[in-house]
C-alpha cells in the first residue's frame, strides 16, 4: 500500500458527528474508507466543502449492510457503478466502491470493482481529483495531484486524449475545473486534446452539457476559462460566435453574487429562445432568461417613479437582473448600486381592485372585466400607486359613466 505524502490536521467537517458515524460504519469490516474529490481539494485549500464523497474497497452490497447496521439510511443511488448514498439528518454522503473502467464509449462506462487505491486513482479524470484523505488526515497522492493543485495546474491523469475518449464530458470539465482551480494559460497537452475533440461535444446530451456549463458560469470568475474555450474552438460549439465576453467581464465586477443564468444572458444579448432550446433549460430557467433579455433594456437613468413602475411590472429579482445587464452593456454605468438597493428594499404595492369590484359596479361578466381591470391598473401605476381603493372605484365609475 502506498504511503501518505503528508498529514493534515483533521478539518471540522471531518470531526463532525455525522461524518464520524459514517466513517465508523465503513471501517467495521476492517476496510479503509477515504475522503475523495472536492472535499479533499477544499480541505487542502482551506475551503468548506459543499459535498463529502467517500471511496471504499467494500462492494456496494456490503456498504448497504454496514450503513443499515449502524442505523444510517442507505440509498442505492448508483449501485451499478458502485455508488451508495448515506443519508443522515445533517447531510448526505456519496460512497463509491473502488473501481476500474472495463469499457467506455465516450458517454458511459462499464466498471469492475476492486481494492486497489492506485488503480482507482489512475481512472480519475484530473490529478487533483485522484487525491484521497483518510479520517486521521493522512493524504495519499498516486499521480502528483498535490503539486498540481498547489500550482493551479489542471492536468489529466495519463493521456488527455484517451481520458476524453472515455467520457467526452471531461472536455468541458477541464475548462470548468480551470475556472475554479486553474492559473496561467492552462496545460498545453490538455488544451490540445480538448481542441481536437471539440467536434464530439454534440454527441453528449444537452442536459449533461448544460449542467457542466452552468457550473462553469458559477465560478467566481469564469472569464479566463471562457476565453480559453473560445480560443480552442469549444465555446462556439455551444453558443453563437459573437458571445458577449466583454459584457460578462463587466457583469462579474458589478453583480453582488455569481448567478449562472444571468451570466448566460450576458453572453447572449438575444436569441434567448434558441439558446434555451439548445441547452434544454428548465421552464423556470427559460422564463427567466427570456424575461431578463426582453427589449427595451432597463433604463438606468430614468427617474424614481419610472424605476418603481419597472419594479412593479418585473418584480425585484428580474428588475435587478435587467439593471445589471443594462449596466454591463456600458463602459461606465452610473447609479447601479443605488438601483440594486432600491430593488432590495422594494415592497410591491397591491392594486386595490379585483374583478368582483367591477362586477359589483355593474360590469357584465366576460372579457370586458379583464380589459377594464387592466386599464384601471395601468392608470393606478401611472399615478405612482398613490390612488386609494376609494379613488380607484371613483375612477371606475367615471369610466363607466363615459362609456354609457
The strand line-up of the biggest sheet is 1-10-9-2-3-6-5-4
Overall mean pLDDT stands at 93
So what's the CATH class of the largest domain?
Alpha Beta
Structural class: alpha+beta
The radius of gyration is 28 Å
Shape, please?
Answer: elongated
Strand element count:
10
Helix content: 40-55%
Give the count of helical stretches: 21
Strand content: 5-15%
The CATH architecture term of the largest domain is 2-Layer Sandwich
Q: Can you say what the CATH homologous superfamily of the largest domain is?
A: Beta Polymerase, domain 2
The residue ranges in which pLDDT falls below 50 over 5 or more consecutive positions are: none
For the terminal residues, how far apart are their CA atoms?
93 Å
Return the domain count: 4
Main sheet overview? 8 strands, mixed
Amino acid at each position: 500500500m502506498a504511503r501518505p505524502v503528508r498529514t493534515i490536521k483533521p478539518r471540522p467537517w471531518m470531526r463532525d458527528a455525522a461524518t464520524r458515524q459514517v466513517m465508523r460504519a465503513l471501517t467495521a469490516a476492517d476496510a479503509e474508507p477515504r475522503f475523495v474529490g472536492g472535499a479533499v481539494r477544499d480541505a487542502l485549500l482551506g475551503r468548506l466543502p459543499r459535498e463529502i464523497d467517500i471511496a471504499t474497497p467494500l462492494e456496494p452490497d456490503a456498504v448497504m449492510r454496514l450503513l443499515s447496521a449502524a442505523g444510517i439510511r442507505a440509498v442505492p443511488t448508483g449501485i451499478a457503478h458502485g455508488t451508495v448514498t448515506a443519508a443522515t439528518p445533517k447531510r448526505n454522503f456519496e460512497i463509491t466502491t473502488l473501481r476500474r473502467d472495463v469499457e467506455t464509449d465516450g458517454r458511459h462506462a462499464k466498471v469492475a470493482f476492486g481494492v486497489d487505491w492506485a488503480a482507482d486513482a489512475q481512472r480519475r479524470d484530473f490529478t487533483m481529483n485522484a487525491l484521497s484523505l483518510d479520517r486521521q488526515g493522512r493524504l495519499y497522492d498516486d499521480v502528483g495531484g498535490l503539486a498540481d493543485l498547489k500550482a493551479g495546474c489542471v492536468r489529466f491523469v495519463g493521456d488527455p486524449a484517451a481520458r476524453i475518449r472515455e467520457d467526452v464530458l471531461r472536455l468541458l470539465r477541464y475548462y470548468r475545473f480551470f475556472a475554479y482551480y486553474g492559473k496561467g494559460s492552462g496545460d498545453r497537452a490538455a488544451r490540445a486534446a480538448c481542441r481536437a475533440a471539440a467536434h464530439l461535444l454534440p454527441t453528449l446530451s444537452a442536459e449533461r452539457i448544460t449542467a457542466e456549463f452552468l457550473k462553469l458560469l458559477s465560478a467566481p470568475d469564469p472569464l479566463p476559462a471562457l476565453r480559453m474555450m473560445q480560443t480552442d474552438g469549444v465555446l462556439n460549439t455551444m453558443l453563437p460566435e459573437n458571445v458577449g465576453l466583454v459584457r460578462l467581464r463587466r457583469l462579474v465586477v458589478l453583480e453582488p453574487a455569481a448567478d449562472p443564468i444571468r451570466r448566460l444572458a450576458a453572453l447572449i444579448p438575444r436569441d434567448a429562445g434558441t439558446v434555451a432550446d439548445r441547452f434544454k433549460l428548465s421552464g423556470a430557467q427559460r422564463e427567466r432568461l427570456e424575461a431578463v433579455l426582453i427589449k427595451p433594456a432597463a433604463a438606468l437613468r430614468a427617474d424614481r417613479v419610472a424605476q418603481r413602475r419597472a419594479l412593479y411590472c418585473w418584480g425585484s429579482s428580474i428588475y435587478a437582473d435587467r439593471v445589471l445587464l443594462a449596466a454591463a452593456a456600458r463602459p461606465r454605468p452610473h447609479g447601479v448600486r443605488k438601483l440594486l438597493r432600491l430593488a432590495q428594499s422594494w415592497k410591491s404595492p397591491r392594486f386595490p381592485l379585483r374583478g368582483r369590484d367591477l362586477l359589483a359596479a355593474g360590469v357584465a361578466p366576460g372579457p370586458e372585466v379583464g380589459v377594464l381591470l387592466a386599464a384601471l391598473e395601468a392608470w393606478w401605476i401611472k399615478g405612482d400607486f398613490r390612488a386609494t381603493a376609494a379613488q380607484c372605484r371613483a375612477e371606475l365609475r367615471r369610466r363607466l359613466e363615459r362609456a354609457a
